[in-house]
Amino acid sequence: MPLSSSQKKDIIKEFQTVKGDTGSPEVQVALLTHRIDRLTEHLKLHGHDNHSRRGLLSMIAKRRRLVNFLEKVDKKRSSEITKRVGLKD
Question: Could you give all domains of the chain from N- to C-terminal order, each with its CATH number?
Fold first, then answer.
């Protein structure tokens, strides 16, 4: 269930901080959020897929670490990205 290159480019273009930015925490959080949403839909249909569930939990933890890092560095950017991708504070 990887993202297609066009979907990935669209997400990067929407969340990049400067032109050519592909690795900022904002972009990484947005990409992870999209992958998490897709995997959540998959798990609704295939409830016994424990391997994918483990990957989902790993992605959620990584996203949480990125948001925590961003919160330490710049609270404004952190709150902005959480609102844009639809996360709870």
Answer: 5-85 (1.10.287.10)
Contact 32, 63 (CB under 8 A): yes
- Tell me how crowded residue 69 is: count the other CB atoms within 10 A of its CB: 13
Which runs of consecutive H residues, i.e. helices, occur in the chain? Answer: 5-15, 25-45, 50-73, 75-85
Q: Is pTM, for the whole model, over 0.85? A: yes
Residues 41-62: pLDDT tens digits? Answer: 999 999 999 999 999 999 999 9
Q: Which two tokens stand for residue 88?
A: 């709870």
Q: Comparing C-alpha atoms, which of 57, 83, 85 is closest to residue 65?
A: 57
What is the distance, to the nearest Å, from the Cα of residue 86 to the centroid of all Cα atoms in its chain? 10
